[in-house]
């Protein structure tokens, strides 16, 4: 009798472990089959783009200065001593980076909430809404008209030129761009490129102009980007890459199967322990 019941229990446990193992195999292999069915055209860039010529959007290369931008402004002239005072920029306190709680200082001209910078001798100058070229010409004209310098040379650069890349990329991050020029493709490359789960035909670009945020959708599977004014990014642009349906579906299935797997494994451990 005992032998008979032992065989029944052995059969039951064998069936239980086999069934649980089958479910586990299904859960582990399901993502593989799901991803293998993805349309290859939806996972590549610029489908069916042959040899062609695309004119760049030159006007988009010169971004407009905005509030909270930090600028480096250098001035030189035939008399270096006279120009020295114009190269003493104001100091901007930055976030503490030391264990002692001390703050570091970064040199630069901060565009305040009213859109002005404070420049030596010239005082408050309107900067927000101008391009770097326009601000450079404005400072040059002021120095010349007030006879402060002879043939001054003014250079304006960003100190906080950055773009953010978020969503389905390998390394979501805020990218600092030293040369102040970056394309959308370069930004995606710096973020590790799109993952296989990225929705390439609906990339969201968020850009702020004069305090108003504008959104634009870009399809990377066509040649739309190559002729778009959004091909070159501007400072403070945000790029968001959405996940595709495969990523959402696989995540949902994993969440649904997780309690089943944990219960089956727990029951199996208890059964083995009692044997």
TrEMBL record:
Record's keyword annotation contains Transmembrane: yes
Domain Polysaccharide export protein N-terminal span(s) in chain numbering: 64-157
Membrane in keyword set: yes
InterPro entries for the chain: Poly_export, Poly_export_N, SLBB_dom
Topology class, membrane: Multi-pass membrane protein
TM stretches of this protein: 12-34, 254-272
Keywords of this entry: Cell outer membrane, Ion transport, Lipoprotein, Membrane, Palmitate, Polysaccharide transport, Porin, Signal, Sugar transport, Transmembrane, Transmembrane beta strand, Transmembrane helix, Transport
Localisation: Cell outer membrane
Protein family membership: Belongs to the BexD/CtrA/VexA family.
The protein's name: Polysaccharide biosynthesis/export family protein
Lineage: Bacteria, Pseudomonadati, Bacteroidota, Flavobacteriia, Flavobacteriales
């Amino acid at each position: 009798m005992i032998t008979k019941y032992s065989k029944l229990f052995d059969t039951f446990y064998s069936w239980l472990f086999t069934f649980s193992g089958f479910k586990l195999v299904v859960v582990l292999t399901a993502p593989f089959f799901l991803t293998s069915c993805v349309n290859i055209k939806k996972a590549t860039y610029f489908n069916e783009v042959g040899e062609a010529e695309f004119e760049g959007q030159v006007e988009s290369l010169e971004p407009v200065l905005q509030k909270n931008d930090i600028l480096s402004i250098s001035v030189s002239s035939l008399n270096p001593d006279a120009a020295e005072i114009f190269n003493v920029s104001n100091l901007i306190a930055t976030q503490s980076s030391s264990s002692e709680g001390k703050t570091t200082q970064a040199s630069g001209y901060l565009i305040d909430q009213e859109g002005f910078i404070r420049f030596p001798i010239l005082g408050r100058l309107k900067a927000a809404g101008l391009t770097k070229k326009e601000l450079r010409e404005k400072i040059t004209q002021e120095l010349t008209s007030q006879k402060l310098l002879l043939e001054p040379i003014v250079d304006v650069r960003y100190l906080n030129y950055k773009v953010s890349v978020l969503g389905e990329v390998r390394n979501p991050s805020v990218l600092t761009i030293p040369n102040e020029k970056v394309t959308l493709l370069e930004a995606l490359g710096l973020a590790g490129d799109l993952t296989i789960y990225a929705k390439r035909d609906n990339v969201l670009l968020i850009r702020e102009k004069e305090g108003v945020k504008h959104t634009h959708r870009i399809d990377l599977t066509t040649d739309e980007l190559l002729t778009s004014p959004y091909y070159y990014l501007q400072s403070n642009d945000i790029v968001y890459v959405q996940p595709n349906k495969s990523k959402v579906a696989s995540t949902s299935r994993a969440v649904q199967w997780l309690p089943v797997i944990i219960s089956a494994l727990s029951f199996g451990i208890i059964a083995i322990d009692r044997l």
